[in-house]
Design goal:
- The structure holds two protein chains of two kinds.
- Chain A contains two helices and five strands, in the order ββααβββ.
- Chain A is of the alpha+beta class.
- Chain A has a five-stranded mixed beta sheet with strand order 2-1-5-3-4, with helices on one face.
- Helix content of chain B is 36%, strand content 14%.
- The termini of chain B are far apart.
- By secondary structure, chain B is an alpha/beta fold.
- The chains are: A alpha+beta, B alpha/beta.
- Chains A and B meet through loops of A and helix 7 of B.
Chain lengths: 93, 427
């Protein structure tokens, strides 16, 4: 099972310029782990020293902020879309 | 959609030989950036903040040099992030600091002051401060079009300032704003975009639009400069108190930026030796119960907030995902202040109480501040002798809907003395 991930502009240099990538995983955490394994360098951008999602990065699944669901433990299903959005941009749906 | 703007010039001497500005700095990881229209750290996505050359500022800044300056926020220009002389927004700031004896008596506070930004120029809210700074910086950076995502007051101020200097202007607002705030845009003839969503939706949309159009979004790509304008509320307060930092401040929280910048303003003045440090200073936050992510985090003892879906009459504070929420929590915690929240009926009560005791007609956000001030006084978090300043940030004429049904009707009479005596019958 895989989901589509939208990559924000500042991280595209780490995904070979791709603005969207597909990644396998049944939860947000799993997808992020697979993404960071596949694209070296993206991990330190998304996670802090403790391996936690940086506090100014928001993740949306199908346009809903995962903080309204179960954070990185939010489960995913085939066809879901995930966006990585700088928090300073604001916004919650 | 056509693009009416020309792109800003690339980084052609962006610093312009600034005496006082070093660059922008990430508040999270400390990485340094040029003085460009950027607001997010490329590395960790943290927000950027202006980095000042305080040693140089210290050498040229004194109480006397400030007092010789204009009667506006530009008297503190050394601590505001523009490079040249201001050419727009020249009259913002220096609003009254009102000694609130009658309100203080009701609340049991002997040294209460109201910083009255309901009469700011030109659009009657504290946003005239941040926009004055942002519009000058936007011009310096070569933009021809200004824009913003707004809960109302900001859009009013951006529209008016753009009109005053003939800049193109796009303002984006939630569709359900008060009539006064919608009209308060339209009259200046910007393009008003009413978005079917809440403020957080508007803000997110604008960050996407900002990535496509070369516009100065004052609270997005110009945010590092814009936000600094709020420090002037601290500078003025200190000066108007006779060069003193108060013991307590009560500040409404929407994005959380205002509260953090008021704290920063007092810190800067103390660090530069303009005023004596006041270790007692407590910074208190005020939110509406219907949109209180910062209050809820404070109550639970958390340093992170969880976003909420706003539902409150205090629409100017209806930001469910506050950009500076973390920093607001941090400032409240460090200063040993508190965060309070007010329900819709308490907000209306606060508006009326302020009006009937001090003759100041504040918008709903002011009702939130007064209601929270009252709670802080009742539970002795603010003691009777504390020098306390409540920040009233917007004008009640813009949110008249909130009072519908809460005030008595006028007394109707015939145009005769008899009718007056019979119906009004003053004792």
């Amino acid at each position: 099972m895989s989901v589509l991930i939208r990559i924000p502009t500042p991280l595209r240099s780490l995904t070979n310029g791709q603005n969207e990538v597909r990644e396998a995983g049944s939860s947000v955490r799993e997808v992020l782990d697979n993404l960071t394994a596949r694209f070296p360098g993206i991990g330190e951008r998304l996670m802090d020293e403790k391996g936690e999602l940086r506090r100014f990065i928001n993740i949306y699944v199908n346009e809903e902020d995962i903080r309204f669901r179960e954070g990185v433990r939010t489960t995913l299903k085939e066809g879901d879309e995930m966006s990585i959005i700088p928090a300073i941009a604001g916004g919650s749906r | 959609m056509s693009n009416p703007s020309v792109p800003p010039p690339p980084s052609s001497d962006p610093e312009g030989g600034s005496l006082y500005l070093r660059g922008l700095k990430c508040r999270e990881c400390g990485r340094i950036y040029d003085l460009l229209p950027v607001h997010v750290c490329d590395f960790c996505f943290g927000p950027l903040e202006v980095d000042y050359k305080y040693e140089t500022i210290r050498a040229g800044l004194s109480r006397e040099s400030i007092e010789r300056g204009p009667k506006s926020l530009w008297r503190y220009k050394a601590l505001l992030p523009i490079v040249g002389e201001p050419t727009a927004g020249l009259h913002a700031g220096m609003t009254p600091l009102v000694r609130a004896e009658r309100l203080g008596k009701v609340l049991g506070l002997k040294n209460l002051y109201i910083k009255n930004d309901t009469v700011n120029h030109p659009t009657l809210s504290f946003k005239d401060r941040v926009v004055a700074v942002a519009i000058n910086r936007a011009r310096e950076l070569g933009f021809k079009t200004v824009a913003c995502a707004s809960t109302g007051n900001l859009a009013n101020s951006v529209s008016a300032h753009a009109a005053s200097i003939g800049m193109n202007c796009f303002v984006f607002i939630p569709h359900d704003l008060e009539a006064g705030k919608i009209l308060g845009n339209l009259v200046y003839k910007p393009t008003v975009v009413s978005v079917r969503g809440n403020y957080d939706d508007v803000n997110r949309l604008c960050s996407e639009i900002g990535a496509e159009y070369p516009w100065a979004f004052v609270n997005i790509n110009i945010r590092p400069y814009y936000a600094e304008g709020s420090k002037s509320l601290a500078f003025e307060t200190a000066e108007q108190l006779g060069w003193k930092i108060p013991d307590q401040v009560v500040v409404p929280i929407a994005s959380g930026s205002l509260l953090t910048k008021i704290w920063k303003g007092f810190q800067e003045f103390a660090n530069l030796g303009i005023v004596k440090e006041n270790p007692l200073l407590k910074v208190n936050g005020a939110q509406a119960s219907g949109c209180s992510p910062v209050f809820q985090a404070f109550q639970a003892g958390r340093t992170q907030f969880v976003p909420v879906k706003p539902k409150t009459i205090a629409k100017s504070l209806a930001i469910g995902n506050p950009a500076d929420g973390y920093y607001a929590l941090d400032v409240v915690g460090r200063s040993k202040g508190q965060v309070e929240a007010a329900t819709d009926p308490e907000i209306v009560e606060g508006m009326v109480l302020l009006a009937e005791t001090e003759g100041i007609f504040a918008e709903t956000a002011g009702g939130v501040t007064v209601a929270c001030l009252k709670k802080l006084a009742q539970k002795k978090a603010i003691r009777p002798d504390d020098v306390t300043v409540a920040y009233i940030t917007g004008n009640g004429l813009k949110t008249m809907e909130a009072l519908t049904g809460f005030l008595p009707e006028p007394v109707g009479i015939d145009p005769t003395l008899t009718s007056f005596r019979k119906i009004v019958n003053p004792s």
